[in-house]
Predict the 3D structure of the following.
Amino acid sequence: MNEQDLFYLLALLKVEGVGDIMAKKLLNHCGNAEAIFKSKSSQLATIDGVGSVLLKNLKNKVIFENADRELKFIKQNDINTLFYQEENYPDRLKHCIDGPLLLFSSGNIDFKNRKIISIVGTRQITSYGTEFCKNLIADLAPLNPIIVSGFAYGVDIVAHQAAMEHDLQTIGIVAHGLNQIYPKTHAKYVTKMEKNGGFMTEFWSNSNPEKENFVRRNRIVAGIAEATIVIESAERGGSLITANIANDYNRDVFAVPGRTSDKYSQGCNNLIKTQRANLLTSAADLIYILNWDLEKESKPVQKQLFVSLDDEEQKIYNYLQQNGKEILDIIALKCEFPIYKISSLLLNMELKGVIRPLPGKLFEAI
């Protein structure tokens, strides 16, 4: 996008009464943002939803002053812009009717041919949630997904940190302009995140992290990803809003179950109980429901010279070495593990490169 096109898009976004849906309607009718401002009022008035107040607001010269100021900020700070009609715009977000017309980003973000998952949850994450989040991302790492979250306290920052530990691209969707970091204590993570991933927002440089901005931010978190995962949530919370939006967008939603007495599992349990989320106990559940093909889509997994197996994995490996190919149900029976657990163990061992799956639910040691 050239500078002139960007200027008029910025101006369009500053017109009072023009949101993302109306802006797209105007663009579809006129072709580009500059043409909107140069069209006659009589022509624009034929567009559904355009009335005398909006026509008057389009003539307000202050919007061009605001656009010029923001354009200077973008240029001076090397901010990347993503317009919804361009290739660099997140593909899944293009299909959301209320997806942002324009996104601003910093860092090194690449959406091409990548799986994207959003991870959300409470800011008061427990040790249970922390461990689950870290293990989930570690198990998914060979599939090289992009991990999206909101860069907030709790689940968000744990997800970002775990992604960075495994060299996965991670993106923080923020509820303010890119001229600041919120919360400030997370500034120490910015440089590392921007090396492989970065930050994205729809908000201008003069936007502060106001309460209503976080609700708007949630639709980006939900819409950008193939699936949204709720790690922990109280009975009410922003992560439940994100899960509901994801459902509205026909995205897959997953929730981690917890004890009925745990405050920060109530939201997740309710999502599962009301069938608004799939139950998530391990990476295997996610891979199965999303139909991810490990052989075709993961990074090549080679057997290492010295692979670390825990006692349970070693028991399964020894059994397969002694007995050759075996079906999942028999492995579970002979090794004395429940089916839900054997599935997770076999996935972890496959990712470590010590076993491989075969047609008919068969597995063999490598």
In short: Residues 295-305 have pLDDT under 50 and may be disordered. Residues 43 and 155 are 50 Å apart (CA to CA). The radius of gyration is 24 Å.
